[in-house]
Specification:
By secondary structure, the protein is of the alpha+beta class. The chain is built from 3 helices and 9 strands. The chain is 23% helix and 33% strand. The strands form 2 sheets. The protein has a 5-stranded antiparallel sheet. A 4-stranded antiparallel sheet has the order 3-1-8-9, with helices on one face. Helix 2 crosses helix 3. The protein is globular, with a radius of gyration of 17 Å. The two termini are 32 Å apart.
Length: 205
């Protein structure tokens, strides 16, 4: 998860913080294995040095709630309440472009991105979730804020090298749930899943 992923309005970042809560869709087992293999191939082909994202952490971020100095109990509670209001269908997600995101430092994310119809369901879920979160965090006061522009992406690794955008074998899966995740900076193993919400079967909507 890039440190500068845009958080909700009113959720201000602070210096020296290590606790991160965010919504995402985790890659399923097959997609995670494929993405991990693709990362190895890119590293070998382009002689990339850096740190890989562990397979169990591969995900596509929906909305970040920002970084905090301690676990944000109140923020997580509001986020859970908002997510429970989201009613969205399951959808296919496919990522078939690889590139480096530019950063001010040398820790550049190497990511997989998608486009068009293959990220349409993700964007719909992002807008629905952002609207519910905006309402919950503002306590329903003021005009609703439009969801910010996002580029759906899965970070494979961090490297000082710059990789130009190019097509790759697609990594895809049917997204049937989304998760609220917790990350303690520097912790090993998978993210802690605080809660998960099942997306509806489109045939039943």
């Amino acid at each position: 998860m890039p440190d500068d992923e845009p958080p909700l309005p009113g959720v201000a970042p602070a210096a020296g913080v290590n606790h991160h809560v965010f919504f995402a869709v985790l890659a399923d087992a097959d997609a995670g294995q494929k993405a991990d293999r693709l990362c190895d191939e890119e590293m070998a082909l382009r002689h990339l040095a850096g740190s890989k994202v562990r397979r169990e952490r591969l995900h596509v971020t929906l909305v970040s709630l920002g970084w905090d100095a301690e676990f944000p109990e109140c923020k997580a509670l509001l986020a859970r309440r908002a997510a429970a209001q989201v009613d969205a269908p399951a959808f296919p997600l496919r990522l078939d472009r690889c590139l480096s995101f530019q950063r001010r430092n040398a820790r550049r994310p190497l990511v997989l991105c998608g486009h068009g119809v293959w990220v349409a369901g993700f964007m719909e879920l992002h807008r629905s979730l952002y609207g519910a979160l905006d309402s919950a965090f503002s306590d329903g006061e003021g005009a609703p804020r439009a969801a910010p522009s996002v580029t759906p992406h899965m970070t494979l690794m961090y490297s000082p090298s710059v990789v130009e955008e190019h097509p790759v074998e697609s990594v895809g899966w049917t997204v049937r749930e989304f998760q609220l995740l917790y990350n303690l900076r520097g912790s090993p193993g998978p993210y802690r899943v605080l809660e998960r919400w099942t997306l509806q079967d489109p045939r039943c909507m």
